[in-house]
Specification:
- By secondary structure, the protein is of the alpha+beta class.
- The protein has 2 domains: 2-226, P-loop containing nucleotide triphosphate hydrolases (Rossmann fold, 3-Layer(aba) Sandwich), CATH 3.40.50; 234-313, OB fold (Dihydrolipoamide Acetyltransferase, E2P), CATH 2.40.50.140.
- Helices cover 25% and strands 35% of the residues.
- It is built from 8 helices and 17 strands.
- A 6-stranded mixed β-sheet has the order 6-7-8-3-9-10, with helices on both faces. It has a 4-stranded antiparallel β-sheet with strand order 2-1-4-5.
- It is globular and about 75 Å long.
Length: 315
């Protein structure tokens, strides 16, 4: 559905996107994940037509759209700010993108009603954005973006303004919505949990480049670089043979083990506890069940991990 070839975008001579190659399939939820400034939003804007690349091209459904304006591409975008018109009703906001299509008034009204129903906002069509919750405003923005029946929906950190509980509920709604529509979603986020929860695949970005692409489990269990290992979830890194060994905290076992240290701190996180251990290996973090009994601060503790928990990374 989407193919990006050698895409480069510079600002002031500095590459924000640096020679990216990427393919995203039909009906896939693909997340661009990375820290602020890594180029993920710029890449999304190049796909959507809001930025013109300095090199490379963008193909949508096999057609080169690199030089096409945003409204001439079969995509629509949900922005981080939602960008709703405050003086227009929910229905008028959803209808706004249909004004340029050759549709009768009745057809336009039917499409608006369909979109409002799709995002479960029935009964709120006459309200203005200021009369809606954050989650409802986000759904209006999605309904407006879907009203033109795009082949691809681009989402630029659309959940960042929501509180934690609402963000979790809304991302589940997005997954359900995408499954019903069957179109491709390209989702930009810096939230690892968000990316892991909704993605079919994730592209991790660093310094304008995609450094690893894979399913969430692959990104988490088999990081390709130290950057990916440290950015996605918590990790223990141990120097070995000129490289690094990465071990996730949940694979660290407390009690009997070949290593010993002193418990420095325990952090209670509800269903899990993080145990921070000072040892000859450096600071080690173990993740155990919240109901488990753990040693007190200052206590000596043994620890270890199975061989299959290790992931070798380059220096």
């Amino acid at each position: 559905m989407i193919r990006v070839e050698g895409l480069t975008k510079r600002f002031g001579g500095i590459p924000a996107v640096d020679g990216v190659d990427l393919e995203i399939g039909q009906g896939e939820i693909f997340c661009l994940l990375g820290p602020s400034g890594c180029g993920k939003t710029t890449l999304l804007r190049c796909i959507g037509g809001f930025e013109a690349p300095d090199a490379g091209r963008v193909l949508l459904d096999g057609h080169d759209v690199t030089g096409h304006a945003p409204w001439l591409r079969p995509v629509n975008t949900v922005f981080q700010s939602y960008a709703l018109f405050p003086h227009l009703s929910v229905a008028a906001n959803v209808a706004f993108g249909l004004e340029t299509l050759a549709m009768s008034k009745a057809e336009r009204a039917a499409r608006v009603a369909e979109m409002i129903s799709l995002v479960r906002l029935e009964g709120l069509a006459a309200r203005r954005p200021s009369q809606l919750s954050g989650g409802q405003r986000q759904r209006v923005a999605i309904a407006r973006a879907l009203a033109r029946h795009p082949k691809v929906l681009l989402l630029d950190e659309p959940l960042s303004a929501l509180d934690a509980k609402l963000r979790e509920e809304t991302r589940l709604e997005l997954v359900d919505l995408q499954a019903r529509l069957g179109i491709s979603f390209v989702f930009v986020t810096h939230d690892q949990d968000e990316a892991m929860a909704i993605s079919d695949r994730i592209g991790v970005m660093q310094g304008g480049r995609i450094v690893q692409v894979g399913a969430p489990a692959e990104i988490y269990d088999r990081p390709a670089t130290r950057f990916v290992a440290e950015f996605v979830g918590r990790i223990n890194l141990f120097a070995r043979d000129g490289g690094w060994i990465a071990v996730r905290p949940e694979r660290i076992g407390l009690g009997a083990g070949p290593h010993a240290g002193t418990v420095r701190e325990c952090a209670f996180l509800g269903e899990r506890r993080l145990v921070f251990i000072d040892s000859a290996l450096g600071r080690v973090v173990a993740s155990v069940a919240g109901s488990d009994i753990v040693p007190e601060n200052g206590a000596a503790v043994g620890f270890g991990w199975p061989a299959d928990a290790e992931r070798r990374l380059p220096a």
